[in-house]
Structure to design on (358 residues):
């Protein structure tokens, strides 16, 4: 456990939550903002992706999926500035890449369950900046490219690899298969299909570009977070288990994301859905567990429960987010088990740093 000072106690609340087999201390942080409810009733909001506007960080964006209808665009005040009906878009992720003489581009990937495809939109960052400043950004109805997966798609995560370039991983609903795709000027190519250790179902994933590591959370029976090192041979046969239900994960591990403190160091964040908490681990092996937190209520903003997708960035975005922004899906959006239309919550990562003394 982390050693806590009296100052930390004043900053946040703490309490014990029974785990299996161990107890873990869970600290409570407060949200700064929440988005409007998504259009679809029930379990619909799912996965956020944060775009950093390097020209004007105060005009950065958040994309959020309604897995039964399409993709929303929000500003840093959690105000909706766009929505496109695209079908059953489950997960979303992105990478901004400087392509030498061609300039800086952002690659937005999504898992489209309506068409069983990996969808890719490509935007010039200058165009993204202009749309963000206009407060009117509707993602294009037709993606730049589609990759036909021949699986029932589920989760997705994007990356930029030093060897393979712009890549994406897409997971299978009710199955163990994971596909690795790459982008080139002709479109999307399938590089590899592998099994996530014969997992029953995997959704949440994130690619650590600098450490060349893929993290995947397995849901259902076992509840395991694994790490796969990427190499030239694309050998996915020897994953490292970071945590499981026998450790600090309660029920399903869901969304997973990375907070960077340097090129190679930082923290892994994981949604531990069963106890409505978020686990924090070291970014590199041996992936030590550092603590957990919940997101409580703040004024009229309710607390967070049953979180699926999460995303985090470490860049200073504005005065509200001096050490980065964490965006999470809220599965109840009223602080209770009675589900209203769901939404996304914004948290200053400075709160997490103080709470866990990171």
């Amino acid at each position: 456990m982390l050693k806590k000072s009296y100052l930390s106690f004043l900053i946040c609340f703490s309490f014990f939550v029974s785990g299996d087999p161990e107890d873990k201390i869970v600290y409570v942080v407060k949200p700064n903002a929440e988005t409007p409810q998504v259009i679809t009733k029930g379990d619909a909001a799912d996965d956020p992706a944060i775009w950093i506007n390097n020209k004007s960080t105060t005009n950065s964006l958040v994309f959020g999926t309604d897995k039964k209808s399409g993709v929303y665009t929000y500003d840093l005040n959690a105000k909706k500035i766009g929505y496109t009906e695209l079908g059953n878009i489950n997960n979303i992720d992105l990478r901004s890449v400087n392509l030498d003489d061609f300039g800086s581009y952002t690659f937005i990937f999504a898992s489209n369950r309506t068409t069983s495809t990996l969808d890719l939109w490509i935007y010039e960052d200058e165009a993204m900046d202009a749309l963000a400043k206009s407060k009117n950004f509707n993602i294009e109805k037709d993606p730049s490219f589609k990759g036909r997966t021949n699986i029932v798609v589920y989760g997705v995560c994007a990356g930029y690899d030093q060897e393979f370039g712009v890549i994406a991983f897409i997971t299978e609903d009710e199955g163990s298969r994971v596909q690795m795709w790459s982008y080139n000027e002709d479109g999307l190519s399938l590089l590899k299909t592998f099994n996530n250790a014969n997992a029953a179902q995997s959704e949440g994933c994130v690619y650590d570009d600098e450490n060349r590591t893929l993290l995947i959370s397995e849901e259902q029976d076992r509840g395991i977070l694994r790490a796969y090192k990427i190499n030239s041979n694309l050998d996915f046969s020897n994953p490292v288990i970071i945590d499981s239900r026998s450790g600090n994960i309660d029920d399903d591990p869901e969304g997973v994301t990375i907070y960077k403190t340097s090129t190679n160091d930082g923290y892994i964040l994981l949604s531990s859905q069963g106890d409505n908490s978020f686990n924090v681990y070291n970014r590199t092996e041996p992936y030590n567990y550092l603590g957990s937190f919940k997101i409580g209520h703040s004024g009229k903003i309710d607390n967070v429960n049953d979180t699926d997708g999460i995303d985090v960035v470490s860049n200073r975005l504005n005065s509200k987010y001096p050490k980065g922004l964490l965006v999470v899906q809220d599965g109840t959006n009223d602080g209770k088990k009675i589900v209203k239309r769901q939404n996304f919550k914004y948290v200053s990562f400075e709160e997490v740093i103080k709470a866990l003394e990171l």
In short: The helical segments are 6-11, 125-134, 349-356. The two ends are 12 Å apart (CA to CA). The first strand starts at residue 13 and ends at 17. DSSP finds three helices and 26 strands in the chain.
